Amino acid sequence: MPELPEVEALRAFLDENLVGKEIARVLPVAISVLKTYDPPVTALDGARVTGTARHGKFLDLVTEGPSGELHLVTHLARAGWLHWKDVLPSGPPKPGKGPLALRVALTGGDGFDLTEAGTTKRLAVYVVPDPAEVPGVARLGPDPLAPDFDLAALTALLAGERRQIKGALRDQSLIAGIGNAYSDEILHAAKMSPFKPVQNLTPEETAALHEALRTTLTEAVERSRGLAAGRLKAEKKSGLRVHGREGEACPVCGDTIRSVSFSDSSLQYCPTCQTGGRPLADRRLSRLLK
């Protein structure tokens, strides 16, 4: 799933390549992709892109046109992506079983496609006068790269939390933009077990978590800066130290990276760096053996 660094890189890419251009048409292809109907998507015809924004994992194109200011807000979900085209194919796209979900065609002949792999369709697009009208945006917690997201802000957010730290980091209503991959990376950098209860964090551990969070996300954004949209996935994978690297050597201590599986996802961690050398129980396997 694209997370804060990748969505921020896409925002920067579109800011450079899209702002100032005029939208010819927005063409929904997958029946499930468009989540709003008033104003209609045709209200974007002839609108000019005036800016871009990011809200957590949501990408926001700001437009000004005959209907006033409108926002084309996208959540790429787990398997969605954006593909820029200097020259779009001629003729309207045909609905079918392929990955194409929506096309934004510009008057100059360029534009981009939104695609979604797999059979579970969760990619979502909204046309709204205000991004706060998107339910997922309205419930977002603070952005972890905002200037005011200091140690005091994180400490206040975690006060009263009784969840495991991995789940808390992934809660978009608590902190916006962090998903499965970067929560693994942050916890590895903080030398912290993903199962550690939040209420057990010492002030020193909270400070280490804040430093790891800011450093991990900032470095990931910097690695992606200036890259074309098509290169961002490979850059994300190459920069990850533990997530998706089960069986490989930890780049810090050399121990073997382990994995814990859940119903629809998995986490990766280093026992030496994070759990005092103790492997965590694979809960899905444990249930099967009972």
What would you say this structure looks like, in words?
By secondary structure, the chain is α+β, with helices and mostly antiparallel strands. It has nine helices and ten strands. It has a four-stranded antiparallel sheet with strand order 1-6-7-5, with no helix packed on it. The protein has a four-stranded antiparallel sheet with strand order 2-3-4-8, with helices on one face. Strands 9-10 form a two-stranded antiparallel ribbon. Helix 1 runs parallel beside helix 6 and helix 5 crosses helix 6. It is elongated, with a radius of gyration of 20 Å. The protein starts with a helix and ends with a helix. Residues 285-290 have low confidence and may be disordered.
Keyword list:
290 residues, alpha+beta, four-stranded antiparallel sheet, 9 helices, 29% helix, disordered C terminus
Strand content: 15-25%
- Element order: H for helix, E for strand: HEEEEEEEEHHHHHHEEHH
Radius of gyration: 20 Å
Strand segment tally:
10
Largest sheet entry: 4 strands, antiparallel
Mean pLDDT: 92
Instruction: List low-pLDDT spans.
Output: 285-290
What distance lies between the first and last C-alpha atoms, to the nearest angstrom?
32 Å
Strands in their spatial order, largest beta sheet: 1-6-7-5
- Class per helix and strand makeup: alpha+beta
Q: Helical residue percent?
A: 25-40%
Global morphology: elongated
Enumerate how many helices there are, as a single number: 9
